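#data-curation
PF: Archiving a pair of folding outputs for the training set. Convention for this channel: one message per protein, sequence first, structure tokens after, nothing in between. First:
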Amino acid sequence: MKLVLQILFLCWATLGWSQNLQLSKDTTVSVITFGAGNNLNDAFGHNAIRVKSRFFDIAYDFGRYDFDAPNFYLNFARGKLNYLQGKNNYKNLISLYKNEDRSITEQNLNLTTTQKQDLYNTLEANYKKNQGAYLYDFFYDNCATKIRDIVETTLDGQLVYNVPKDYQEQTFRQLIDHNLHWNTWGSFGIDIALGSIIDRKATAREQLFLPEKVNVFFNNATLKNNSQKLVTNSNAIYTKQGINGNKVSAFLISPLFILVIVASVILFITYKDYKNNTRAKGLDMVIFIITGSVGVLLFLLWFATDHTATAYNYNVLWAFPLSLFCILQILKATPKKWYIAYIKFMIVMLCLMVMHWTIGVQRFAPALVPLIVALAIRYIYLLRYYKTNQSV
């Protein structure tokens, strides 16, 4: 019975009293970095702050969300979803990530007793305010930048980031590419949905939107007042054990392989049309419906949401919403003059896309290349067909 009471007392201390405790001098504060997982939502890793005292061992993190929240999917799509701060028993959180076979490293921070207390108070006070609800931004307000900002605030201007030896100036998109292979659906979707705004160079500090960069930059950081290192020691808690899956099987369902097949079908049908002087209306319907629908989605992400990274997306140069208005003209034997002009317009748009890609305005998904070539050839054939067979 005595043992049960002691356990209940410790649980009460951890969950309740921890909010008002005065930390002891032997309290440690560390940053935990979790490696990438197998799904897109955890492909970039994760960070947490561990506060360990004689009374409790708690890990605080950010980027949680409640699937049961009202209008969850609508708010997520509009960029208006509130993300939350997490507060967990340290051992439970570590067990979770070990079960997912994700690497775990810990960096103990060189903080004074007062700074540890301030950081702890900040985390507790933030958690009390609606569980730290905040509007998430993948590049500027995520699980990694929250950790960075809290440590910076705690050190009150004393933190100095020293550029690592292997540091490279890169765009946000290039930084993402380190975690996602270009020929995966996750990378393809990102390259389609996110605009040219992520093709600008990220500053050294901005690179800390990635959890692994928090680990790297904190290891190299020093304190301005005494030039001591921010991290007193770093250790690996767990090392990933798993291996990658079958690369051949993965390629057969990859974006490049699928789009090569799609482009081949378009080119094959176009060649048959050329040989027989015909026009496959079904193919043109599919092309204009799909590209037009993608274009509508991209315009909505650009103009109708609060997502900062979806602005100025020049994928609309190949997927333009107005293509949907051409469907009726495709069915006609003699289309309107504006439809012929629109096909010329789309050829110009594809040329502009190549120019944007070449001069670095925006980098597009590499897997799009066969599709873009096939679309250009199809549009050119349509102009030739209408010029040969119709009096416009």
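PF: Second:
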Amino acid sequence: MTDYQGFVEPGYEPVARLFTRLFRSPRRGGGSFVVRYRDRTVVDIWGGVADPRTGQRWQRDSLALSFSTTKGVAATVIHRLADRGLLGYDEPVAAFWPEFAAGGKGRITVRQLLTHQAGLDKLAPIAPNGEALLDHLGAERRLAAHAPDHRPGNSAYHAITFGWLVAGLARAVTGKGMAELVRTEVAEPLGTDGLHIGRPHTGQDRVAAPVGTFRPLSPLIARLGLAPFPGVLPPRRGLESLFVPGVHELFQPPDFRVLDTEMPAANGVFSAESLAVLYGALANDGVADGRRLLSGTTVRAFNRVHSRTPDRSLGIPMFWRLGYHQAFVPGVWLPRAFGHFGYAGSGAWGDPASGMSVAFVSNRIYPVTTAMGDLALTRLSRLAVAAVRRAEGPRAARDLPTPRSDEYPDRDLSAG
């Protein structure tokens, strides 16, 4: 199991070599990695096994549970609605979802919802156990009726509740659930078939079986709020946004019940190709492969950073945009790059400065290395960025746009 399938353009060979090392044995599962650059795919590779029990190999269109990567896809649905004038970022959520005004939430805006500033991050009041996590309609209703856990206005990662909040807003505007909206508002306009909330209605055989065991942080850690290493264990508030008794049972084979609900913060089932196309559109003024997903005006508006201080749930600065966070690439500062990473290593991001997008999905579920998950995506991303910069050569500094100073007023951007 030392090979991979697919292709890499000349200059991107280091990406393929690292990818090959990630899946050297069936015990490591499989995955896909895609890089697009200025509306062209330059890396499209896959390898390993999709199901260790049968030995089924990973295919180009294999799908994988991608955890919090789902949040970026769900947020894109909200941007589609905003693009058509069906909602406004600075309007109260309750203007579109009247029930949301309960509990003193009448002034919380759509912008605050998308930047994790609604103060509704605690999970237990909304879904106190694993069974309740499966009731997405009930979760939306309970969030609408619930008073904020904390004063709104400061970012605190809504690890699970984010998905139900944006789904409830979208349902109030359109009358449709988030699973349907991801299909009609994102996948179909982009011409992709690899973006799903929960179990796909067709092509279920494409969903890779998980390798490893989902292991939520222990109740003891959750009670004590231990966080000796920022970015490794989140603060107590972060644990309260993630943990309820019985959550791990939803991720157990063979039923894998988490796929039988709509949890738009955590149960997206994606292909790397589709994620790369999506973020390719977001990185290129709203267009991918000649298909317009969003207007350039909307894309430029939601890329503004709204928070630079440490997130109260994660303990580290996340540089929140409207539904996306800063793309983390070790040793490289990409001031305009944004996306969303997920538990166990999946994730995708795009960079409007270079026009590149990157996506990685895998079926391996190991104990996380940091609060940002497994480090495979960040390592692969670093090599991809290096390859793009080598390809551009001296032209890169001249051709890549400089971010506006109002996006990052506290940082010198002249060095890129």
